[in-house]
Write a structure and sequence with these properties.
The chain is α/β, with parallel strands linked by helices. It contains 7 helices and 5 strands. It has a single domain, classed as Response regulator (Rossmann fold, 3-Layer(aba) Sandwich), CATH 3.40.50.2300.
Length: 164
């Protein structure tokens, strides 16, 4: 799929095997995904390409996910930011995420694919007014393909009506 005709995701994960099924499903719906297994590689990608979504693992060899997001946010200020972790949240990480000073969604890997999709689309709804017209058309195609309805994974609004 042409990168200009897709929603792009930069995904920082030190164990890419753990996200294989998520990536496969997202690609089936038309997302374009760049997976990086270290911060240096991910920063390089963020410096050279624009991403609609930036996903990062929380706990990994230093620098961790919050350090990475702090460094990448100035390079990708209009992206949706999500920390996707297999570890339980604790107050230290909640505080570090809050200190970043920008909106970061926190999601457990145990929430599964539906949890990830819900997180992405709830954030999309929140920032719909900031998305450029060309990307809105791409999002509309993805929403139609996934057929998300109110009630799916706790979504309480009709996304299709919002994006019309």
């Amino acid at each position: 799929m042409n990168a200009a005709n897709s929603i792009s995701i930069l995904w920082l994960e030190d164990d890419p095997r753990s996200i294989f099924n998520y990536v496969k499903k997202l690609e089936e719906f038309g997302f374009r995904i760049v997976i990086c297994n270290n911060v240096t590689e991910a920063i390089y990608e963020a410096e050279h390409f624009k991403f609609d979504i930036v996903l990062a693992d929380l706990l990994m060899p230093p620098p961790d996910g919050t350090d990475f997001l702090n460094r990448v946010h100035p390079l990708q200020p209009n992206s949706i930011f999500i920390i996707f972790t297999g570890y339980p949240y604790n107050n230290i990480y909640r505080h570090r995420i809050k200190e970043l000073g920008f909106d970061v969604n926190l999601l457990q890997k145990s929430d599964g694919f539906s949890g990830l999709i819900v997180c992405i689309f709830q954030t999309l709804c929140k920032y719909w007014h900031k998305i450029d017209t060309e990307k809105k058309g791409i999002w509309k195609r993805i929403v139609t393909a996934i057929d998300i309805k109110p009630g799916f994974g706790g979504i309480t609004i009709d996304i299709k009506k919002l994006i019309e």
